[in-house]
Amino acid sequence: MKLILPIESAAEIEPHLASDTKVVLVDSDGNLDNDASDAEVYLSWFLLKSTTLHQVLAAAPALRWHHAPNAGVNHILTPTYLERDLTLTNGAGVHAIPVAEFVLAYILNHAKYLPELHALQAEHHWKRGLAIQELTDATLLIIGAGAIGQEIAVRAKAFGMRVFGSRRHPQELPNFDKVVGADEWRSLLPFADYIVVATPLTPETQGLIDEAALRSLPNHAYLINIARGAVVDEPALVRALTEGWIAGAALDTVIGEPLASESPLWSVPNVLITPHCSGHSPKVKQRSVALFLDNLTRYQTGQPLRNIVDKQAGY
């Protein structure tokens, strides 16, 4: 069997391969170090460019299975990609813990007035009387109760929060007080103190958090986006923050990354912007490699693969 492996993770994977496995290495620009015409399996890596993806596809006509370490695969499902009959698996779950920890950090940052306290310290100003909140009994609405959403719910429950969620196929889940279907979450917006966007970007979710959704939130609500920037209508969000429809937002992702220096998001009130880093952790690479190796064993032994992507649904 021949595999195409990214140079970024080959050193961790190759020691676990059978002696008769052949490997072709590919760099971030799509340059292959050997003939890939008979390769069956392709492991891509983070920050995959469409040009790199298309170069690999062209060089590997026998490809059958592609594993991407990302949870979101909207950047992979190009028209060129969809022409190929490939099984696609993703890295859903490998980022869930660090992202969930970041979400609680965003919530606590807002509830405990940490930016104001940092500013007061810098000014050598001892001030009391800030409207510091606790999380007990606050309501958290998670749009997208998948692997990441469920890890967020675990941590939110530990703080005594009421947790609502939405997913395409609603079902009872641990740590959620209520889980509704994809069309029902809007009815929960007026009750949300915090709302987390954790849904994949698909044609159906693009612009999902629109003006109507933002106007339905209470004016003390705080929005957190750790999914994809395009799930949120950015002009509507800028208006919501400028005009005080909501109390603030934490954005780990935006439509255009890196965020342009002239973007109004840099300077609208009460926004925390982080550079798409909520999923970062040394353990993510370990989990990504372990997931791929487990799936490779499954592939070689004819067992069902984990994390198969429904390419029509987009996740």
From TrEMBL:
Coiled-coil features, chain-numbered ranges: none
Domain D-isomer specific 2-hydroxyacid dehydrogenase NAD-binding span(s) in chain numbering: 104-278
RNA-binding listed as a keyword: no
Superkingdom field: Bacteria
InterPro entries the UniProt entry points to: D-isomer_2_OHA_DH_cat_dom, D-isomer_DH_NAD-bd, NAD(P)-bd_dom_sf
Keywords, comma-separated and alphabetical: NAD, Oxidoreductase
Pfam families on file: 2-Hacid_dh (PF00389), 2-Hacid_dh_C (PF02826)
Gene Ontology molecular function: NAD binding; oxidoreductase activity, acting on the CH-OH group of donors, NAD or NADP as acceptor
Domain D-isomer specific 2-hydroxyacid dehydrogenase catalytic: 52-309
Entry keyword annotation includes Glycoprotein: no
PANTHER family noted in UniProt: 2-HACID_DH_C DOMAIN-CONTAINING PROTEIN, D-ISOMER SPECIFIC 2-HYDROXYACID DEHYDROGENASE NAD-BINDING DOMAIN-CONTAINING PROTEIN
Family: Belongs to the D-isomer specific 2-hydroxyacid dehydrogenase family.
Name the UniProt record assigns to this protein: Phosphoglycerate dehydrogenase-like oxidoreductase
Organism in which the protein naturally occurs: Cylindrospermum stagnale PCC 7417
